[in-house]
Amino acid sequence: MRIRKQLERVPGHKVANHRIDRWWWLVLAVIVIVLLLAITQPDPYWRVIRFVSDGVLVTIGITISAFLLTLFIGLITALGRLSNNSFLRWLTTIYVEVARGIPLLVQLLFWYFAFPSIIQSFGRLIHFEPFERYLANPFLMAILGLTFCYSAYMSEIYRAGIQSIPKGQNEAARSLGMTKSQAMRHIILPQAIRVVLPPVGNEFISLLKDSSLVSVVSVADMTRRGREFMAANFIPVETWMMIALLYLVMTLIAARVVAWIEQKIQTEER
To answer: Distance of alpha carbon 27 from its chain centroid, rounded?
Structure first.
């Protein structure tokens, strides 16, 4: 231990940190609880797991798809809000304020029920048959609704991260002959991404939990499958206890992965 501390005082010397994140023990504990319930009381706990297993995959698929789109659209929106173009800045600001001002559940209901009706009405107006017969795909509408809402929040995270970088960084890049876009891409954004990583990770966890709302728009995610199992077997306590534990496992694992990425980036910066 003394040798390690002495090495850490040496300028430029890096000491690898191989300690395991202690919070992984909480993840392991929850997994053990799930396994014990499934093994000791297969009826109903193992039945619940088997019934909602396809819903788990749907939940993960929707969360990852929406999050990847959110990262991209959120960045574009943030750059729009920081743009010198007043119209682009006004347009992106309106989008952010509208998306953040309407509850996510209402947005999901709009995209699934109202948006197809708008497309059909437009199709009848222009006499375009594919639009007239348009029917909403629950999976795609769920991703669209989550992306539309969370991109607004993500854009504010990006914007705060970009604005946290000292202006001298941009001025130095411009003095070296870089254009504004080159300075943003090569100098500002790499530093901003390190700053926004913790809140971005929190947004992923929030998105994972809020994905349960897509069950109201006919998406067979884990929550909807849990409702179907409960309706067929009339055992609400056991059903929702297992659903809650499965969500907890996923969110805890996501939190630990985010923490590992943060620690790795901080280690590389030293």
So the answer is: 20
Domain limits at 168?
32-269
Q: Are 145 and 111 in contact (CB under 8 A)?
A: yes
Number of residues that make up the chain: 270
- Tokens at residue 190, please? 């790499």
DSSP letter, residue 205? H
- CA–CA dist 49, 224 (Å, integer): 13
* In contact, 146 and 211? CB cutoff 8 Å: yes
- Domain assignment of residue 16, yes or no: no
| Cα dist from 99 to 145, 168, 236, 246, 266, whole Å | 10, 33, 34, 29, 33
Q: Quickly list H helices, the chain.
A: 2-9, 24-40, 47-81, 86-101, 104-109, 115-126, 129-132, 138-164, 167-175, 180-183, 189-210, 222-233, 236-269
* Residue 24: inside a domain: no
Would residue 234 count as lying in a domain? yes
Distances (CA, A) of 157 to 144, 153, 175, 260: 20, 7, 28, 20
CA distance 48 to 53: 8
Q: What pLDDT, on a 0 to 100 scale, did the predictor assign at position 35?
A: 95
> Which whole number is the average pLDDT over 133-145?
92
First-last CA distance in the chain: 20
Contact yes or no for 226/238 (Cβ under 8 A): no
pLDDT value, residue 130: 86
Number of independent structural domains in the chain: 1
Biggest alpha carbon distance in the chain? 80
Residue 88 domain flag: yes
This prediction has a pTM of: 0.87
Q: What is the CATH number of the domain that holds 52?
A: 1.10.3720.10
Please state the three-class secondary structure of 76-138 as a single string.
HHHHHHCCCCHHHHHHHHHHHHHHHHCCHHHHHHHHHHHHHHHHHHHHHHHCCHHHHCCCCCH
